[in-house]
């Protein structure tokens, strides 16, 4: 299994585990809430019964006892008569006045009690209560403890989620910088190790030319080309890691040079076409930019797998000051869901691919050329367009016709 699939599998496993924890916590709290709600209804019933005893009895000791029972109950409640008028309240805001509503000469905030009553009606069925032969209703709402318990799992889960998110961000950024270090170190070491044999090979070729008088020999010329190519590869590797110097170049010319170099090295079944504005300029590091174009062209060739065409077009947006480089092929296409995934290291659909080409390309465009690269368009079985966006430094007026 490649690392990309492995990472995806881990993600799903962790997500499933998080869902189990979250639903377990919600389930247990809702079980607690149900139990407490049941016990609060019993309390409200006991309160209603004690009220009835107080109001229906004239035995003093019994009254004291019943009042104590009544006052030990903490569930907020309102008693109404059969018509729905508020008679009494319990456990509500005492600053709004408390007991015996309405009573002559006593000021109270009727709206507050009415609102509370409406809220209680929405929460629980009322308890019927006979007081002095009259029917009354006891409405009640959850105690503050129960209300807090209801929201507790959401607060708890949000705090855990924020914590996990912070931990994940810290962990992945430290892992990324670790990976960067390995990657940069490896690239620089490779360039360093290649340097000495390449210089020797150059010197040997010069010697060979002299010794065998082979200045115009085709074989020697080919050998020289390959060594130069090796030099370019080593140069590319050495440039990874340290911010490369960007120089202003005509984008069309740079891309065309590489396309011309590339197209003679692939099958004749694939045709190449270059078009667009030849006057747009951008800050470019040629060895790295050639590498970018090479990766895109190689992928296009792999996607075509046989006969097809590759089109490279340079255009610009004057208002936004941007240069676009569009590489279009007539290959197998990329599913929409994979437009971002193709840039992840390790993602490949090729048997012998490493899935590194596009992640390297993105790094070179984003980090080293301050640009962007993305899949502009793709249709399965028809083809794909990758777009690179660079900042337009200025237009080359001298070469304008
Ligand atoms: N032009 C394209 N058309 C269709 N699919 C593409 C194209 N370019 C890239 N892909 C898809 O994106 C994947 C990743 O590309 P990337 O260049 O990163 O890796 P690779 O080509 O598979 O291997 P390598 O490391 O050798 O470049 C490819 O395997 C392919 O599935
Ligand atoms: Mg590739």
TrEMBL record:
What Gene3D superfamilies does the entry give? Answer: Histidine kinase-like ATPase, C-terminal domain
Residues spanning the membrane: 12-33
> What Enzyme Commission number does this protein have?
2.7.13.3
Q: Which InterPro entries match?
A: HATPase_C_sf, HATPase_dom, His_kinase_dom, HisK_dim/P_dom, Sig_transdc_His_kin-like_C
Instruction: Extract the signal peptide range.
Output: none
What is this enzyme's catalytic activity, as reactions?
ATP + protein L-histidine = ADP + protein N-phospho-L-histidine
Where does the Histidine kinase domain start and stop, copy by copy? 189-394
Against SUPFAM superfamilies, the record matches this protein to: ATPase domain of HSP90 chaperone/DNA topoisomerase II/histidine kinase
Asked if the record carries the keyword Transport, the reply is no
Which keywords describe this protein according to UniProt?
A: ATP-binding, Kinase, Membrane, Nucleotide-binding, Phosphoprotein, Transferase, Transmembrane, Transmembrane helix, Two-component regulatory system
GO molecular function annotation: ATP binding; phosphorelay sensor kinase activity
Q: PANTHER family under this entry?
A: PEROXIDE STRESS-ACTIVATED HISTIDINE KINASE MAK3 (PTHR43065:SF10), SENSOR HISTIDINE KINASE (PTHR43065)
Q: What is this protein called?
A: histidine kinase
């Amino acid at each position: 299994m490649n690392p990309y699939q492995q990472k995806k599998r881990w993600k799903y496993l962790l997500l499933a585990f998080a869902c189990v924890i979250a639903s377990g916590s919600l389930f247990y709290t809702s079980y607690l809430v149900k139990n407490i709600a049941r016990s609060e209804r019993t309390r409200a019933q006991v309160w209603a019964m004690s009220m009835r005893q107080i109001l229906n009895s004239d035995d003093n000791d019994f009254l004291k006892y019943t009042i104590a029972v009544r006052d030990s109950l903490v569930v907020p409640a309102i008693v109404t008569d059969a018509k729905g008028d508020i008679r009494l309240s319990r456990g509500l805001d005492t600053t709004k006045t408390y007991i015996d509503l309405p009573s002559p000469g006593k000021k109270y905030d009727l709206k507050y009690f009415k609102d509370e009553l409406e809220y209680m009606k929405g929460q629980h069925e009322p308890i019927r209560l006979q007081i002095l032969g009259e029917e009354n209703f006891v409405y009640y709402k959850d105690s503050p403890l129960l209300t807090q318990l209801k929201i507790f799992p959401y607060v708890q889960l949000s705090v855990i989620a924020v914590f996990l998110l912070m931990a994940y961000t810290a962990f992945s950024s430290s892992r990324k910088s670790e990976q960067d270090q390995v990657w940069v170190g490896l690239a620089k070491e490779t360039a360093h190790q290649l340097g000495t044999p390449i210089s020797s090979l150059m010197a040997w070729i010069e010697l060979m030319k002299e010794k065998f008088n082979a200045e115009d020999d085709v074989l020697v010329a080919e050998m020289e080309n390959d060594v130069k190519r090796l030099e370019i590869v080593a140069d590319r590797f050495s440039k990874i890691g340290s911010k490369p110097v960007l120089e202003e170049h005509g984008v069309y010319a740079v891309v065309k040079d590489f396309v011309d170099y590339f197209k003679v090295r692939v099958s004749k079944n694939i045709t190449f076409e270059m078009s667009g504005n030849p006057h747009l300029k951008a800050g470019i590091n040629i060895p790295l930019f050639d590498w970018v174009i090479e990766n895109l062209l190689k992928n296009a060739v792999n996607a075509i797998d046989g006969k097809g065409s590759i089109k490279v077009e340079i255009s610009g947006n004057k208002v936004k000051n941007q240069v676009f480089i569009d590489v279009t092929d007539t290959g197998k296409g990329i599913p929409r869901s994979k437009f971002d995934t193709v840039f992840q290291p390790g993602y490949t659909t090729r048997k012998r691919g490493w899935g590194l080409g596009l992640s390297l390309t993105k790094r070179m465009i984003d980090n080293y050329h301050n640009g962007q690269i993305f899949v502009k368009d793709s249709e399965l079985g028809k083809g794909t367009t990758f777009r690179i966006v660079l900042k337009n430094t200025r237009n080359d007026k001298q070469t304008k016709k």
